[in-house]
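sanity check this chain:
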Amino acid sequence: MAASVDENVQSIALYNPVHVALHGYIAPFLVLYPSWFYLWVFVYGTDDYYESGLIILAAICIVQILVCLSCYWSVHVRCALTCTKVSSRVDSVCFSTRSGYVLHGFESIGYLVLRVRVHG
């Protein structure tokens, strides 16, 4: 194991960002919304199931909002939904801290995750 730089840093993980359309808070919902609209309009009918269709649409919206907010609440969720893990430093395009600071002259388009060990 390599020498520890700081006693609070347990490990470092490098990530490469994926295209915005492939993020976990966008791509599944690009399929979910049209699928629900098709089922609601053509299969069930908007006249018969108007209120229940809107309730399910609101539920899908709430789930998407919670998924988006979870990216701001947890850097681990953000990396899981927006990046791919890099196996070595050679494969990484760039890296930066979560706060957006630029490291080694690269733009801030990746994420550097530090796992902190809490003393308790």
Q: What stands out?
A: The two ends are 24 Å apart (CA to CA). The first helix runs from residue 27 to 44. The first strand starts at residue 9 and ends at 17.
